[in-house]
Specification:
Two copies of one chain form a homodimer. Chain A is of the alpha/beta class. Chain A contains 15 helices and 13 strands. In chain A, strand 5 and strand 6 form a beta hairpin.
């Protein structure tokens, strides 16, 4: 029995309100080995006050030592085993640019690439052409017409783009055309299941037409496709948790991930304050709110320790906008760690804080990795967060008699 | 998807060095309930200094409450799920005496035993005959000739021995001849799969010939065989982790276990200092070193608390031989607990210390069970140790986009 089956069996509705506040890449490291992390350095009087009357813990997004991407990390936060449930690269890329895939759409990542006269790939990234240039190429490719399939080609960044095919009976059981190395030809796309044969023929036709269009566009004179994926068919929060859930996020990727699990996406502004104000104005309409703050992660990826500290302090300054609403359950955590010292996502466990009337308090002095790692909730997999929130909102009935 | 499949997908190579220092049976108990353990009693200034700038935790070799043998405990340390991957008793016994099994060899544990005139087993251990005596009997049994199969019979200790058959198409899908009780006859060995029938006939022939040879050797006038096993076919460290790994151990069992997962076995002397010096001389040639210290476990098994304390202090005195090499990742832990108070392996979780530039420090005052159980790494399964070491050496790429 899947954990979601169990939770579906036990979950009930009531009129409690839950807020899951995710500071992307919250976990960190000191600038020097053993130094204070970004969160420990930040001046956070409001989070610290909350930590005094909350249960703390530290979570593993996937498992010890594994560094997650945004997709698996958020699936875990939403209670979906990130090893079992996977979102294909094409679908994730479409979500990342805010493209709202329909049920039968087929998406794939595109790399603009360079081929020599005999068709051998010489650069899988076409010299990392500027986004402006690839945007223009996408417009050209979007004009390709093949039978009744509607084709969208959208730029992502530099040589990266995404293609979405909208038609009947498209399959994602396809191999990549991207050979993942240079000095060889792009591969034919091959059907990996019987029902995928016509889709493979169609996709290869698209690629050949794209190559004709790009022939004189050196260095971007060909395309490599990979990660064919349809919209992931994930259990929906409404069914599993019986929750009316909403997402407040300003980055397309996180809206897309929330949409995949059935959350409503709320219109909001780009600042932390605007996101929190959106919570206030919508607070009566939903049971569960996922609020996503992106800048902690992006400043960590940039290696900007001071900026990440500042973003955390900005969240702290505006925290009263959330706490004044008196949610029954409030969680503050991250989806993974992004230490500025590493300039990338990392495997380190993530600080976690849960407030509810029914948790055991830690009486911690500060919300940070050190206190969290000694917290009453211990170290636990992030996939347990949703059941913990549901329990604390008294939305899970007894298991067994 | 198996955890090793995941790690294989994510692992990359670089020029970092890792050391896994295993003090066998490190975890302990006080002599009086609640007293200081062996590790807490030992005077360990160097380990304590290391603990200040390291991450501490406490590991479960298998799961809460389970006491592991050496085989499963080490498989866990090497990152192999010890419930899923098993090494048959025969193969483990062969490893334990330093017998280097070839790919198609079949091994089994032998007990010299006593049977009465009607063939009923009266003592499954032949009065625990001395090792010298059983050695002589092994020499006699090794002379048995059956077709083209080469037969090795080697003493282990007292009534215990091991037999290795080397021939074509031998199968280990065989039942035991050992009835596990007295007052009954030894069992015929039965094929448990179709392909094992000729092996069963052959093994029964070996047993009958052995009984003839031993007929006048009362009390060791028969043999009982159990745990038929071929060399375990385990994923190899080189493939899964992309590691060039070496083992430094003086006891045959641990060399055998390391060999099963594809480590190179380095020549070393019997003392702790000699083992550490072997690390120094081979440090440039490998990525990963497993160093095994046996005496912590054997003194624990002997119930010799003071001796176990002394062995730990001896490790501490020589620790600079390791730390002066500046490994990128250094782990100090045990494979399980062997409290002198219990004179045996136990289920207690095992103190764990990891140093790397990228770990969150615990600032602990002492390396011991109490600090470890409150450490920043929390309590975690030992099977996670390898992924944690690989992460800290920046050898694991991101999971998912």
């Amino acid at each position: 029995m899947d954990r979601l089956d169990l939770i579906k069996d036990l979950s009930i509705t009531n009129d409690t309100k839950m807020v899951l506040l995710v500071l992307d890449g919250l976990g960190g490291l000191g600038l020097e080995p053993g130094g204070k992390t970004e969160l420990e350095t930040a001046n956070t009087p409001n989070l610290d006050l909350l930590a005094e009357s909350a249960a703390l813990g530290i979570t593993d997004p996937i498992m010890q030592g594994i560094t997650p991407g945004s997709g698996p990390a958020h699936l875990g936060l939403f209670g979906y085993d990130p090893i079992k449930y996977r979102i294909g690269r094409g679908a994730l890329a479409a979500a990342g640019i805010g493209f709202n895939m329909q049920e039968n759409d087929l998406a794939a990542r595109i790399n603009f690439a360079t081929a020599d006269d005999s068709g051998l790939i010489t650069d899988r990234r076409a010299g990392r052409i500027a986004t402006d240039e690839s945007s223009q190429l996408c417009t050209l490719l979007a004009k390709i017409e093949i039978r009744n399939v509607k084709i969208f080609v959208k730029p992502v960044k530099e040589h990266r783009a995404v293609v979405i095919f909208r038609g009947d009976s498209l399959s994602d059981k396809l191999s990549d055309s991207d050979p993942q190395k240079t000095g060889v030809q792009a591969k034919e796309v091959v059907a990996l299941a019987d029902g995928a044969k016509t889709t493979a023929v169609f996709v290869n036709e698209f690629i050949h037409k794209a190559q004709s269009i790009l022939a004189d566009k050196h260095p971007a004179n060909t395309v490599l496709l990979r990660g064919f994926a349809k919209t992931p068919s994930l259990p929906q929060m409404k069914n599993v948790y019986k929750l009316n859930a909403a997402a407040i996020a300003s980055y397309p990727m996180y809206k897309g991930l929330a949409r995949f699990v059935g959350m409503e996406i709320l219109q909001t502004g780009p600042t932390i304050r605007e996101e929190f104000e959106t919570l206030k104005t919508s607070f009566n309409e939903y049971d569960f709110f996922f609020i996503h703050i992106k800048a902690t992660d992006s400043s960590g990826e940039d290696g900007n320790f001071a900026k990440k500290v500042k973003v955390i302090e900005e969240v702290d300054k505006n925290l009263a906008l959330i706490t004044s609403l008196n949610p029954d359950v409030l969680v503050v955590t991250g989806d993974h760690s992004t230490p500025a010292a590493l300039k990338s996502h990392s495997w380190h466990p993530v600080p976690f804080l849960l407030y509810s009337k029914y948790c055991r308090f830690d009486n911690a002095k500060h919300f940070g990795e050190t206190y969290c790692s000694k917290g009453t909730l211990g170290r636990f997999p992030a996939v347990d967060i949703m059941s913990l929130m549901l329990a604390n909102s008294l939305r899970l009935t007894k298991y067994g008699a």
